[in-house]
Design a protein that fits this description.
Low-confidence stretches: none
Distance between the termini: 66 Å
Structural class: alpha+beta
Helix content: 10-25%
């Protein structure tokens, strides 16, 4: 159905009125693909606990959470470290949602398109995993420290002023 690294299709018609509780557990191969897609060193675990229930006359509402254990690279030290990811899931799907790339404006809170009566809970899991990643991951305790020059160090702005067309420090 999809080329996504994690796929768990669910037919909307198979969801009873009271809803379904579904757990998506990524296999080692799927975790490896999700890690590569997100430029993460590794994903040790990736689990979504979701509740799917009917929305409107022919849509679905998915709620729950995505939890993962990852190994990331610290943006300060460039060392690997473990990071826990937890992201709440809340998304609605409807066959009447605006088409992707359509001419009409899409309400930010409106439902996502339900195509062919199927929602891919693996894709939802992967998407919310990505949303839960810190864009600037830092190892606990890592702090960026700017090296200060000695007492005689020249300001970068003083150097730029010397390079200006008039070459003076005067204004």
């Amino acid at each position: 159905m999809t080329d996504a690294p994690l796929s768990r299709p669910l037919q909307a018609a198979s969801v009873p009125a009271e809803g379904l509780d579904i757990e998506v557990v990524a296999s080692p191969e799927e975790r490896e693909a999700v890690a590569a897609l997100n430029d993460v060193l590794s994903v040790e675990s990736l689990v979504a606990r979701l509740h799917v229930r009917p929305f409107g006359s022919d849509g679905l509402e998915v709620s729950g959470s995505v939890q993962a254990q990852t190994t990331r690279t610290c943006v300060v030290t460039l060392e690997p470290f473990e990071e826990a990811v937890r992201e709440d899931v809340s998304v609605r799907f409807s066959p009447r949602a605006a088409p992707v790339g359509g001419e009409q404006d899409v309400d930010e809170d409106g439902p996502d398109p339900l195509v062919g009566g199927v929602v891919d809970l693996g894709a939802v899991t992967s998407e919310f995993f990505t949303l839960g990643l810190d864009p600037y991951p830092r190892k606990p305790g890592a702090a960026f420290e700017l090296e200060e020059g000695g007492a005689g160090a020249e300001s970068p702005f003083a150097i730029l002023r010397r390079l200006s067309p008039n070459g003076s420090d005067e204004r």
